[in-house]
Design brief:
Layout lengths: L6 H7 L13 H12 L10 E7 L4 H13 L6 H12 L7 E7 L9 H21 L3 E5 L7 H6 L7 E9 L29
Antiparallel strand pairs: 1-2, 2-4, 3-4
Length: 200
């Protein structure tokens, strides 16, 4: 595992890795991910990100939240069918040996914008993903409607103004990631030099 990977390589080589092995991940590696997240930029130096690290049986809190949210939306489903639904949704919490819920706890200080607090927490997630790749780990940033449900906030003891911004699943990759593709950056860039502006 190479935490000294050049930044350009980490940025261009990182991929979302949804299939990982069940092998446990050393605590010191997890702590490196957390440190990377903790050094994200934040407006007004508020550092609004919060991390909830789930391993082993600790993932059950996430499983229960997934199951409860699914059951709430399953009107008319009961008995064995409901139990199967709950089990299927709860199993999502165990798709990786480590799951880190990243939340934002927005500052209410004067002059602090709520949207900028979310941007800072998102930057923390990106830092963590890049560090995971540099360490040879596979990671994927999962969200979706369940992540934003009040029951998910309850699972982590979040306040009314707080929010989950991502569930980062981490493990040893089961397979090599696919090649990445991007449209040329020139197609998405406008150079504004006060003379002849070029547009995408």
């Amino acid at each position: 595992m190479n935490s000294n990977m050049p930044l350009t390589e980490a940025i261009r080589g990182r991929r979302s890795v949804g299939r990982v092995k069940s092998d446990p991940i050393a605590r010191e590696l997890i702590e490196q991910l957390l440190e990377a997240g903790n050094w994200a930029p934040s407006h007004h130096a508020t550092e609004p990100w919060r991390f909830y690290v789930m391993t082993g049986g600790g993932r059950q809190a996430l499983a229960d939240a997934y199951a409860d949210i699914a059951a709430e939306g399953a009107a008319g489903v009961s008995g064995q069918e409901l139990e199967e639904l709950r089990a299927k949704q709860g199993a999502k919490a165990f798709r990786a040996p480590v799951v880190i819920a990243v939340a934002v706890s927005p500052s209410t200080a004067k002059g602090v914008s709520r949207i900028e607090e979310f941007a800072a927490a998102h930057a923390a997630v990106q830092n963590m993903l890049l560090m995971a790749h540099a360490l040879g780990l596979g990671a994927i940033w999962r969200t979706g409607e369940p992540a934003y449900h009040p029951r998910m906030k309850q699972a982590f003891g979040l306040g009314e103004a707080d929010a989950i911004v991502g569930l980062v699943y981490i493990g040893i990759p089961e397979m090599a990631p696919s090649e990445g593709k991007r449209r040329p950056v020139a197609d998405k860039t406008v150079w504004m030099n006060g003379e002849t502006d070029s547009k995408p």
